[in-house]
Write a structure and sequence with these properties.
With about 280 residues, this protein is mainly alpha-helical. The protein is built from 14 helices and no strands. It catalyses: a long-chain fatty aldehyde + 2 NADPH + O2 + H(+) = a long-chain alkane + formate + 2 NADP(+) + H2O.
């Protein structure tokens, strides 16, 4: 909770006038307990997880001719019922997560040391933190993912996620509970090591969720693919091959960037969208 009784008092403490964003943040959070701001993370992720996969799902059902040319595995159609099953099973976790966040907030506050008040972080600070979080999360996730592809890890845990050899957006969170727990560690590692403002934390988890849904979408749109702009970005085609290979896969473990796969020689580069479709067909 912001420890100022008025906007004038907040500006006096800052030694300057608040920006429009800081004024809006002050109005929104001044009377809100920090624990509730902390729980916003789960609410935001629930909304994103619910909405982001819907456009492709709707187009698949009502305008397949528009979207199927960009499908990475055109020979495999995921039934609508299976996509909805993924969503329902994952959505049930969100209310539990909110309750857990409320109960664990005192401990989480000590570990994360998240800032809730003013000033808001600058764009430069936010970008720098997001870059650090992305690189750290990618490295840790890579090794956890490789461990999950050992015989024991795959048979006991990871095979649940690989039920979908042709993934769909909602399948991003369709995993064994132990896998979800393990892969939350890399996502939290950055904010723990480099503490940030709660708004940066919301942005970080939102970006990762959207990116995770994207690489599990089953589609590659070359005209909007970030892989042309971001060095070592894998994208949907890169990860889709990992699902295509399934339990046999010993490549393309990286969730976001491909530098770990490149360094440790577990990358299987795919030449183009057209080549991917031929390979997967």
């Amino acid at each position: 909770m912001i420890p100022y009784a008025s906007a004038a008092e907040a500006e006096a403490a800052l030694g300057r006038a608040m920006t429009w964003a800081e004024a809006a943040w002050y109005k929104y959070s001044v009377a809100m307990p920090d624990a509730w701001l902390h729980c916003h993370t789960t609410v935001i992720l629930f909304v994103i997880y619910t909405i982001t996969p819907l456009p492709l799902l709707i187009l698949e059902q009502f305008a397949p001719s528009v979207i199927l040319p960009y499908k990475l595995q055109p020979g495999v159609q995921v039934p609508l019922a299976d996509s909805l099953r993924c969503y329902i099973e994952a959505a049930c976790v969100f209310p539990i997560a909110v309750g857990f966040q409320l109960l664990s907030y005192p401990a989480a506050a000590k570990v994360l040391r998240t800032r809730m008040g003013l000033p808001l972080p600058s764009v430069r600070e936010t970008v720098a933190q997001l870059v650090v979080y992305s690189l750290l999360e990618d490295y840790l996730s890579y090794w956890i993912h490789r461990l999950l592809h050992t015989q024991w890890g795959y048979e006991k845990i990871h095979r649940v996620h690989h039920e979908f050899t042709a993934p769909t957006g909602f399948a991003m969170s369709y995993s064994h509970w132990a896998e979800n727990l393990l892969l939350s560690i890399p996502a939290l590692a950055g904010p723990v090591i480099v503490p940030c403002h709660i708004t940066t934390q919301w942005l970080w988890f939102s970006i990762r969720l959207i990116e995770g849904i994207n690489i599990h979408s089953g589609y590659h749109f070359p005209f909007i693919s970030p892989s042309k702009l971001i060095p070592f970005y894998g994208g949907a085609a890169y990860h889709d091959y990992h699902h295509y290979a399934g339990g046999r896969s010993q490549s393309n473990f990286a969730p976001l960037f491909t530098y770990c796969d490149y360094i440790y020689r577990t990358d299987k580069m795919l030449p183009s969208h057209e080549g991917v479709v031929t390979l997967f067909s």
